[in-house]
């Protein structure tokens, strides 16, 4: 019986959030927090069951219903039509949820169920093993996460990448030994992107790419990415403003602003691009010299400029401003990350920050002001599959 686990990291955008939606480059990196998925096939079971800890719910799919759905889809559409598949899955899931719980299912749960059903059906329909593959053995999937959902750390892409890897292994696209091959990583990332599409209308593709491949990377929508060759991960403090918001809503508000003042906002995107260009060599050389303090100071300035540009497009929030002020007062530089209007801020931490008394004061002050604080690194490894003991 198939049994394995997947760890898929979350991400921070270091520079270029929002600008990336308008085809400008962004720099992003994985963080040391992520989603953990455990997959166990169960002999004799006819149910696929999903325990989603973050949403405090368990979702079930009866294999007989799922196989009937696949058969109907195959008879009506080309199996590689993702647009049709998403449409059909939305209909099927809302029927199933209505049957199970009336109309009481929360939006997060509904979206998670659509992602699960869509990615599972997509992986099985495109199986290289058998064009008529159906699921014969039930399984249990347990998903735990260290990422807050809807806070800018890419929980949806991390969740989608973990599901994609599990379902692609289940349907024979690759196995635990070959998932790191280039074409298999590209497949995981492309299905994680599909999961993102369930949540946002037009994601840039940045989040699923960085979660899958890891490290730190420069990304341009529609053009792919380049991995930065960093010497070592960067130390950062993630600060949770505890203000939740919807990425899709904020992206829509920024689009409205950009339509109202096209040249002005275009100039901001141009500045964001220059910022990424200036930042890349700094990140790539950081850590290769005895004394990095001059480079670190430049990075701090770039953090500040980037944050001010994001404030200019209206995606800050009074709680984020409070975080920036506390950090600045203690001599640290910070910026919002991701969509903004809440979610997380990142504070840049110097080498040996633990030996610095001011760091501990900063942490204490942020915590007593009610913010969630988590020290981590930016730029570690991407999605990993490993074996699972009982
Ligand atoms: N651990 C999880 N378990 C179940 N569903 C999850 C989990 N993490 C994310 N999701 C799904 O992702 C959706 C959240 O997506 P959203 O894009 O709003 O947040 P995010 O990815 O954390 O933020 P951002 O895209 O700004 O980084 C949820 O509605 C849910 O469907
Ligand atoms: C705001 C945004 O740039 C980042 C969200 O994490 C939107 C996107 O890239 O899709």
UniProtKB/TrEMBL annotation:
Q: Does the keyword Transferase apply?
A: yes
Per the record, the domain of life is Eukaryota
Q: Which InterPro entries match?
A: GHMP_kinase_C_sf (IPR036554), GHMP_kinase_N_dom (IPR006204), Mev_gal_kin (IPR006205), Ribosomal_Su5_D2-typ_SF (IPR020568), Ribsml_uS5_D2-typ_fold_subgr (IPR014721)
Its Gene Ontology cellular component terms are: cytosol
Listed SUPFAM superfamilies:
GHMP Kinase, C-terminal domain, Ribosomal protein S5 domain 2-like
List the Pfam families. GHMP_kinases_N
Name the family.
Answer: Belongs to the GHMP kinase family. Mevalonate kinase subfamily.
Q: What is this protein called?
A: Mevalonate kinase
Q: Which organism is it from?
A: Drosophila pseudoobscura pseudoobscura
Report the gene name: Mvk
């Amino acid at each position: 019986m198939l049994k394995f686990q997947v760890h898929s990291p979350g991400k921070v955008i270091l520079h270029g959030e929002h600008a990336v939606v308008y085809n400008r480059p962004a720099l992003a990196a994985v963080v040391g927090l992520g989603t953990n998925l455990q997959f166990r096939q169960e002999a004799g079971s006819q149910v696929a069951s999903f325990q989603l800890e973050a949403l405090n719910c368990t979702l079930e799919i009866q294999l007989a219903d799922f196989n009937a759905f696949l058969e109907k889809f195959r008879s009506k559409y080309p199996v590689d039509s993702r647009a049709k598949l998403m449409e059909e899955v939305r209909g099927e899931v809302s029927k199933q949820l209505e049957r199970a719980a009336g109309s009481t299912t929360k939006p997060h749960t509904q979206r998670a169920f659509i992602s699960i059903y869509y990615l599972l059906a997509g992986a099985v329909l495109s199986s290289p093993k058998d064009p008529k593959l159906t699921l014969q053995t039930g399984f249990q999937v347990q998903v735990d996460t260290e990422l807050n959902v809807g806070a800018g750390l890419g929980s949806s892409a991390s969740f989608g990448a973990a599901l994609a890897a599990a379902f692609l292994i289940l349907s024979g696209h690759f196995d635990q030994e070959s998932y790191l091959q280039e074409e298999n990583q590209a497949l995981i990332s492309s299905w994680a992107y599909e999961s993102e599409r369930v949540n946002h209308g037009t994601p840039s593709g940045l989040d699923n790419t960085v979660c899958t491949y890891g490290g730190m990377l420069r990304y341009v929508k529609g053009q792919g990415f380049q991995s930065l060759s960093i010497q070592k991960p960067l130390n950062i403090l993630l600060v949770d403003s505890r203000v939740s918001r919807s990425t899709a809503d904020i992206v829509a508000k920024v689009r409205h602003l950009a339509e109202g003042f096209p040249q002005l906002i275009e100039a901001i995107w141009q500045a964001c691009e220059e910022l990424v260009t200036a930042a890349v060599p700094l990140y790539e050389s950081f850590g290769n010299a005895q004394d990095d303090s001059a480079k670190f100071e430049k990075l701090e300035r770039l953090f500040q400029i980037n944050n001010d540009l994001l404030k200019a497009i209206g995606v800050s929030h009074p709680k984020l401003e409070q975080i920036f002020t506390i950090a600045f007062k203690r001599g640290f530089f910070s910026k919002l990350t991701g969509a903004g209007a809440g979610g997380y801020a990142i504070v840049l931490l110097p080498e040996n920050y633990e030996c610095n008394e001011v760091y501990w004061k900063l942490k204490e002050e942020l915590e007593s002001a009610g913010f969630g604080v988590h020290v981590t690194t930016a730029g570690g490894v991407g999605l990993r599959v490993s074996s699972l003991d009982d």
